[in-house]
Predict the 3D structure of the following.
Amino acid sequence: VKDLLASAQREVIARFAWSNMLLGLDYDGTLAPIVRRPEDAHLRPRTRALLAALCERYPVAIISGRARADVASRVARLGVREVVGNHGLEPGADAERCERIVRRWLPALHRSLDDVAGVEIEDKSLSVAVHYRRSRERVYAADRVRAAIDALPGARRTIAGKLVVNILPDGAPHKGVALLRLRRELGADTALYVGDDVTDEDVFAIDDPGRLLCVRVGRTQQTRAPYYVASQRAVDDLLARLVELRGDGSRHHRREERT
Ligand SMILES: [Mg+2]
């Protein structure tokens, strides 16, 4: 894993910035600092300004685990081209099926977990997040959450995040599927994607060298991404670099040779 902002990687960023590139960004932990209460996660003024400048230079998509309306309200009026919620499945053709499944899960989860202190069930309509950040007995809470999920009807996929377990209907499109769809729909040749968490690994796992550049926030060996930036704050430096590389604000559509 290499630091994308190191001088040795200048060429890598430049090659993508000068191609017909889609910029894909996760929200929590990537654009916005992680905070105790997810509802308080806001962009710093500098990040806001950089994001607006980027939107004049690249097509920008935000791909988040939050419900779509939630994340859309947090990046409103900045010129973002697409907002994808629920880990890649909103909007999408699969939404109705997922909603039906989630509606069956919710009462079952409440029955199993309402007596566990500090556990919160977040209904994201197309998926569910079970948080246990506020639990005082996290090992116990995690066990109970796991047992409750095991008892749910229907096939599902779980993504364990930071003191949260996300439950998605099986077969639903993930962030990687969403990014590739947007790259195609927006007519881009390449994409640069930045994310900080387990669910972003669905993007990082895509093998598309030369056309997809993946960056993980925070240095870790537990990632498929070939590049990292050191911290959430360093994301701003990457965004600034991308703005700078298209200095005049006009959209470049210089096509790079595909590898
Ligand atoms: Mg994140």
The first strand starts at residue 2 and ends at 3. Residues 95-113 form the longest helix (19 residues). Helices lie at 10-17, 45-55, 68-74, 95-113, 138-150, 175-185, 201-204, 232-245. Residues 252-259 have pLDDT under 50 and may be disordered.
